[in-house]
Amino acid sequence: MPDPIIRVDQLVKTFRSPRRHDGRFGALRTLFTRDYTVKTAVDGISFAVESGELIGYVGPNGAGKSTTIKMLTGILVPTSGELQVAGLVPWRRREENALNIGVVFGQRSQLWWDLPLIESFDLVARMYRIGPERFRSNLGRFRELLGLDEFINTPVRQLSLGQRMRGDLSAALLHDPRIVYLDEPTVGLDVVAKERIRTFIEEINRDRGTTVILTTHDLADVERLCRRIILIDRGRVLYDGTVDGLTASYAPYRVLIVRLATDAGAVVPHDRPLDLAGVEVAKREAGAVWLRFDPTVIAAPALISEVVRRYPVSDLSIVEPELESVIREIYESGAVAT
Amino acid sequence: MTAVTSRLPAYLKLASLQLQITYAYRGEVIGGLLVVLLRILLLKAVWTAAYAGRTSVDGVPLPDLITFLTLGNLQLVLMRPMLVWYLQQRIHEGQIGLDLARPVPFLGQLFAQQVGATAGLVPFVVLAVPLAFLVGNLAPPASPVAAIAYLASLSLAYLISTLIGLLMGLVAFWTVQTLGVGVIYEFATQFFGGALIPLSFFPPALRTIADLLPFQTQVFIPVSIYSGAISAPADIAGALGLQVIWIAALSVIVWFVWQHAKRVVTVYRG
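Structure tokens for the assembled complex are given below, as produced in the milestone run.
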């Protein structure tokens, strides 16, 4: 197996801020205080990424996702722990590291607000010393994939959010970085714009072998794009593995939705409880019931035949757990994979 | 040196983008210049009244004084410390993270942008010269040598302003807010630089303080060379030398502060 392109080992980042004083001269006392509150944003995170992977880096607000990304880009200096990106320690060799990576922060833009989009691309070309030939061919490709032509000469402040994001993605990838960090690239976008961005991310990962670390709140992004997910909360890794494995280990339950032929004068199940091991009623509505079952205790066919035998059924369907509900459950229960 | 030349296209582009921004906000530039012209007008009125009909005070003729104040205030427009508010804005909005994720040294990026912004101001200042002559007074330089030495001294003064602006901007890495510092700085350059009252009129104690501060090198020294108040070759060399010493000292300070600032970077807004 080749060396991982990113290696993070026991990474910690704490922020120290002066404790605020209230009352008279509060601001002045704050200024000269030796009293600090320490907040640990990243608390011993470790993982390794192979070249060419497309990883979802997921966690609730304040989990430490962006702080990790900022350390990987070399912007922030870790408090302790080690990290290496393409053989470099990012914060020690920030400018060299920058040549290897591309970054998109969905909440802000690297584009020059008051100037036509193409000016920002031109600046990127000079900063990353992209030769004219490569610049032309890469820009040509992005123009085609992302439809940049309709707004490439428009001042950035006049672009829609979706257009701006397409511009930012292009700017981050013009120099063919080996690794790209996408921090909330689909935030605030409509479904069409989101899909366009996802297709683009998929293509650069597949065609160029670009390693992608994707931070997002939209788990549909992860389900659509990533095979592997790293789930973090309160600065720690909760899960690191395949998306399928996550749903399998954290959500062993399936749900069987049973619609009853009530107009046939049938009896509804709560009059006759379904006393089967591994099955419970999750939800009830007029004429329908949601049965949550553990497939390791009772297999779906067995459950279905039991249900059909006991009740007049008009329709049946099985729902696979959604990543979103799985992750919600993990956050709420605070379960830690140990 | 190769590091600088390979990055020169990036620096030039940054400067040119900032120049375009200055032009895009030309209304603000023109407004700022009008304020400066008004200041010159008021200074002229006040000093004319203060002279009370005398042609010369302490050996300084009134027209020379007005020329001094006109030129001093006009050149201060070019030395506006754009980096103070620029850095505080970038840090406040969290944009600083993107600037730091560039393969180009951060201080170099900032310097290029300051130069670009100033280059955008030059045409406006040149256009304001005839107006400044009308509201204040402008005499030609004392001699061809004075003119050349003035340009050299002005360039050094510009470097000093940029370094001080950079230093104050870097404070925002700790305090986030620097507007207060900027306001104090602008007052200090005007007052201790001699753009309101020539340093030769300062009482001895205040004059000593002014001599020990860098601000006099931004206004008083270049304008004194222009007007011929500093004219002996040894004096001119001494004045330029003092500016060079300040540049060296400030460069060292900026470098140390930056080395420390890098380690305390906090990127706001997620």
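The interface with chain A takes residues 6, 9-10, 12-14, 17, 20-21, 24-25, 93-95, 97-98, 100-105, 262-263, 265-267, 269-270 of chain B (CB under 8 Å). DSSP finds twelve helices and two strands in chain B. Further analysis is deferred to the final report.
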